[in-house]
Specification:
Layout: E1 14-23, E2 38-48, E3 53-58, H1 63-73, E4 79-80
Length: 86
């Protein structure tokens, strides 16, 4: 595939996301990796719009507030770099 497709343009931004979770079960050390037993504590976002890089660190005690702010910061046409780092 042509790498120019993955470059930001005035119509498309590149967004990289890092989601940090913690286990809600102190007896399950891998609970942070399980969607049923984890809680989001922070989302880091890097947005490249072709002109500048914007860094966001979204962290609150309320997981719903974190997700609301995250979804308000991204756009439907954003192109993400999806990698799972454990």
């Amino acid at each position: 595939m042509d790498e120019t497709y993955f470059r930001p343009t005035r119509y498309r931004r590149i967004v990289t996301v890092d989601i940090e979770t913690v286990s809600t079960d102190p007896n399950n050390p891998k609970g942070a990796l399980d969607g049923l037993s984890c809680q989001i504590v922070c989302i880091g976002v890097l947005i490249d719009d072709g002109v500048r890089l914007t860094e966001l660190a979204i962290a609150y005690e309320d997981e719903a507030k974190i997700l609301t702010e995250f979804w308000a910061s991204v756009q439907p046409e954003d192109l993400g770099d999806v990698k799972l780092l454990v």
